[in-house]
């Protein structure tokens, strides 16, 4: 009896073909989102950049087309801070089926004061978590229309040492920018895992996967005209850090694998191979606090009330 050929090892520079698939990347005009989009474009997939800045989206599309001949790349205006705008953004998507969405867009405030979105939500929690939470609900009919869609949530290594304060999700009592950022990314990761539990319970073919980019620095990232620039001095200063962390091009690898690799399963966490900070993507054990399903369920209920939508799976 002939043996089944072994699955070849994953090669971040030789990705499988994905013609006919449609992928939305939020925040696809810059940083990790841009490189996720660029890498996915090399597979023949149609990549849609979700961006609130039309000029930056145009620059990103031009950069991808210059590097990927024949790239199928488009853009849609997407403002995760404005929850009321999300239905129109989803209606503007060029396809009525979505094979994957990469929840990548996010903001980080380096210093006080605390800011709020137009809906009164703390800025980082509102955009990084609630925006994607609500967007998922509006995208669910398109995801359910695909044979085996994936929702890929990009968390952060900064969330590993954080814990949620469920009584103060929006940092009203004690706002510290770096902590609030880490907690907003932790909320995203809890959401991605809880979403997969709900999808499995509903018998949905859609899978939800959580990834993180490790340590990804602008100064270690290859330049892209009009999108990503770095000076020679910045490259030299960052060189020693390359022993521990990496550029945003490599930071995109876990998300790209989560979209494309048929071996990836819902409910998994993927990150860089070397100390979770750099290197090729690998499957990680869930961080201990991410296994707390009670916290995840309470966060879901609070997020549903704040966002005014439940992004759970559609009834079959």
Structure in a nutshell:
With 316 residues, the protein is of the alpha/beta class.
Question: Radius of gyration in whole Å, from Cα?
Answer: 19 Å
Overall shape? globular
C-alpha end-to-end distance: 40 Å
CATH architecture: 3-Layer(aba) Sandwich
CATH topology: Rossmann fold
Helical content, roughly? 25-40%
Q: How many helical stretches? A: 9
Strand sequence of the main sheet, in spatial order?
3-2-1-4-5-6-9-10
Outline the low-pLDDT stretches: 1-5
Let me know the CATH homologous superfamily.
NAD(P)-binding Rossmann-like Domain
Give the H and E element order.
Answer: EHEHEHEHEHEEHEHHEEH
Could you say how many structural domains there are in total? 1
Strand content: 15-25%
Number of strands: 10
Class computed from helices, strands and strand pairing: alpha/beta
Q: Roughly what is the average pLDDT, rounded to an integer?
A: 93
CATH class: Alpha Beta
Reported for the largest beta sheet, the result is:
8 strands, mixed
């Amino acid at each position: 009896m002939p043996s089944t050929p072994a699955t070849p090892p994953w090669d971040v520079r030789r990705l499988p073909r994905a013609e006919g698939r449609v992928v939305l990347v939020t925040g696809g005009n810059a940083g990790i989102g841009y490189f996720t989009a660029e890498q996915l474009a090399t597979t023949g997939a149609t990549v849609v950049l979700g961006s609130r800045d039309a000029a930056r989206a145009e620059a990103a599309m031009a950069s991808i087309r210059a590097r990927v001949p024949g790239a199928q790349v488009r853009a849609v205006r997407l403002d995760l801070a404005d929850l009321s705008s999300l239905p129109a953004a989803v209606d503007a998507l060029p396809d009525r089926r979505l094979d994957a969405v990469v929840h990548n867009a996010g903001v980080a405030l380096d210093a006080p004061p605390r800011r709020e979105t137009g809906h009164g939500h703390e800025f980082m929690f509102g955009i990084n978590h609630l925006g994607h939470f609500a967007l998922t609900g509006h995208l669910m009919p398109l995801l359910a229309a695909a044979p085996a869609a994936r929702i890929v949530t990009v968390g952060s290594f900064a969330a590993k040492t954080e814990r949620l304060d469920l009584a103060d999700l929006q940092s009203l009592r004690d706002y510290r920018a770096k902590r609030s950022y880490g907690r907003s990314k932790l909320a995203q990761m809890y959401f991605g895992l809880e979403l997969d539990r709900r999808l499995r319970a509903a018998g949905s073919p859609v899978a939800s996967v959580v990834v993180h980019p490790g340590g990804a620095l602008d100064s270690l990232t290859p330049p892209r005209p009009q999108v990503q620039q770095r000076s020679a001095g910045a490259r030299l200063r960052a060189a020693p850090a390359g022993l521990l962390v990496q550029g945003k091009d490599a930071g995109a690898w876990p998300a790209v694998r989560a979209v494309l690799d048929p071996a990836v399963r819902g409910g998994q966490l993927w990150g860089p191979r070397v100390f979770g900070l750099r290197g090729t993507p690998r499957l990680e054990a869930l961080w201990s606090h991410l296994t707390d399903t009670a916290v995840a369920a309470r966060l879901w209920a609070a997020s549903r009330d704040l966002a005014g939508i439940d992004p759970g799976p559609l009834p079959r």
